[in-house]
């Protein structure tokens, strides 16, 4: 079984690299023509769909609200696996990722990621501040955001989340746009952190009802953060009991 999973891993890495090389010229369009930023989400969706389908992972996206493509949202998913990033590329609503700058050092991919998304060095106060400003600017430009509120894969007791950071919720309140809690219930089973032999299982994503922020102030930040946490946590517990 391990040999088969090992071969599957090698195959998946090859597919990932081939798709990246083929799609890189397309990603250059929104890099050099920022007015076409919406293409980033479209190309992410193409890449993610092709990757998961060619590597034999079924996909199940569940939207529990009637989303509006032209409305802006801040998406907040749980984060337990390296599969979570390509998984969120499946989102039907175009969004810019806000995340750690670890991937900037990957040749070519790092350049693309840095140019199209918002990266942060969490060890630097200046970088964290600039990330907030860039997030505000992205909202002003009409973009939605994808932010992992845990700040990375940090939990030692999957599927329990760690305390959420403030950035996503501060941005949503300041710009008065809704938070969308997102539950990714099974990626930690498919590809646990620190492992490289995935199990084939459905890539499931649940987009919960948006939490409106109109009329909220920074005094409501803790409450908004807790409501988002509880929504995702309840779904994770439900999935754990069913798995």
UniProtKB/TrEMBL annotation:
GO function terms (MF aspect): 1-acylglycerol-3-phosphate O-acyltransferase activity
Phospholipid/glycerol acyltransferase domain: residues covered: 73-187
Residue ranges that the Swiss-Prot or TrEMBL entry lists as coiled coil: none
Source superkingdom: Bacteria
CDD domains membership: LPLAT_AGPAT-like
GO biological process: phosphatidic acid biosynthetic process
InterPro entries for the chain: Plipid/glycerol_acylTrfase
Transmembrane parts of this sequence: 12-32
SMART domains per UniProt: PlsC
Pathway involvement of the protein, from the record: Lipid metabolism
Keywords, ordered alphabetically: Acyltransferase, Membrane, Transferase, Transmembrane, Transmembrane helix
Signal peptide (from-to): none
SUPFAM superfamilies in alphabetical order: Glycerol-3-phosphate (1)-acyltransferase
Protein name: 1-acyl-sn-glycerol-3-phosphate acyltransferase
Record organism: Fulvivirga lutea
């Amino acid at each position: 079984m391990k040999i088969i999973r090992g071969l599957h891993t090698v195959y998946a890495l090859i597919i990932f690299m081939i798709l990246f090389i083929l799609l890189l010229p397309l990603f250059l369009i929104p890099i050099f023509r920022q007015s076409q930023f919406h293409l980033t989400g479209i190309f992410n969706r193409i890449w993610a769909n092709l990757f998961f389908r060619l590597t034999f992972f079924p996909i199940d996206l569940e939207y529990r609200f009637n989303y509006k493509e032209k409305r802006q949202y801040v998406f907040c998913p749980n984060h337990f696996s390296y599969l979570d990033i390509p998984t969120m590329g499946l989102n039907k609503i175009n969004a810019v990722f806000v995340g750690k700058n670890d991937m900037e050092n990957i040749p070519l991919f790092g350049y693309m990621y840095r140019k199209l998304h918002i990266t942060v060095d969490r060890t630097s106060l200046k970088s964290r501040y600039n990330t907030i400003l860039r997030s505000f600017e992205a909202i002003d430009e009409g973009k939605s955001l994808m932010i992992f509120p845990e700040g990375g894969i940090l939990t030692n007791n999957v599927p329990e989340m760690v305390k959420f950071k403030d950035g996503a919720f501060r941005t949503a309140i300041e710009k008065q746009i809704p938070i969308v809690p997102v539950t990714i219930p099974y990626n930690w089973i498919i590809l646990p952190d620190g492992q490289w032999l995935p199990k084939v299982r459905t890539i499931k994503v649940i987009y919960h009802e948006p939490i409106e922020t109109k009329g909220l102030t920074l005094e409501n930040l803790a409450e908004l953060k807790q409501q988002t946490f509880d929504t995702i946590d309840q779904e994770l517990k439900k999935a754990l009991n069913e798995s």
